[in-house]
Design goal:
By secondary structure, the protein is mainly β. It has one helix and 17 strands. It is elongated and about 80 Å long. The protein starts with a strand and ends with a helix.
């Protein structure tokens, strides 16, 4: 079942599914001290995905886009000797901004936040990332200064479960960086001559008669 509604600058979407043959992953024990990622079919797993987005331009200079999404599931996984609930909702929020400043400057501010929760049989921790940038265009030249992951909080941590084991994955890739770039566009300010086909040069020939 899917619904969609729009009011002015707001857009709401929602999708509910009752999945009859859902494939879930788990950690299985092949033999003592040997583990592997396995898959199992589950029946009748309800899932709900919803999102609310907003887009608007203020004073002709500030364009903002924001969206909030939520994933909810009602999943019970039965292992060989135990069972576990995977029903904590997972939400995310994104906010993108473009602000036109004096002297032909363009500022950008992007924020991404994810809450902790379950997706399928995996647990995800909370993470966030804030990026800021400043761009200047001067004729054929474009200069851009950008800071990625300003607050240094984009690390990710997930857990996949088994009957008597938990597989934890830490993503320590450091995304924080500062970049400065320059771009030049060749001939962007030059006007292209129109192709005149078989009549090309006819005006010049008439003038020389």
């Amino acid at each position: 079942v899917s619904i969609q509604a729009q009011l002015s600058d707001f857009l709401l979407t929602a999708d509910f599914q009752q999945i009859s043959d859902y494939v879930a992953s788990y950690i299985s024990t092949a033999r003592q001290d040997v583990y592997s990622l396995s898959y199992k079919n589950l029946s009748d797993v309800p899932m709900l995905d919803a999102s609310l987005s907003y887009s608007h331009r203020f004073f002709g200079r500030w364009h903002t886009q924001a969206s909030a999404t939520m994933h909810a599931q009602w999943l019970t996984f039965r292992y060989e000797h135990s069972s576990k609930q995977f029903s904590t909702p997972l939400a995310s929020f994104t906010w993108h901004n473009q602000i036109r400043l004096p002297w032909q400057l363009l500022a950008t501010v992007d924020l991404n936040i994810s809450t902790k929760g379950h997706r399928s049989t995996t647990w995800q921790n909370q993470s966030s990332q804030l990026d800021v940038g400043l761009q200047k265009t001067l004729r054929d030249w474009s200069f851009q200064f950008r800071v990625t992951d300003l607050i240094h909080d984009a690390y990710q941590f997930t857990q996949t479960f088994g009957d008597n084991i938990i597989y934890s994955r830490h993503c320590y890739a450091d995304r924080q960086r500062i970049t400065f770039s320059m771009k030049y566009s060749f001939g962007s300010q030059k006007q292209q001559r129109r192709y005149e086909g078989v009549n090309a040069g006819s005006a010049e020939r008439e003038r020389m008669k």
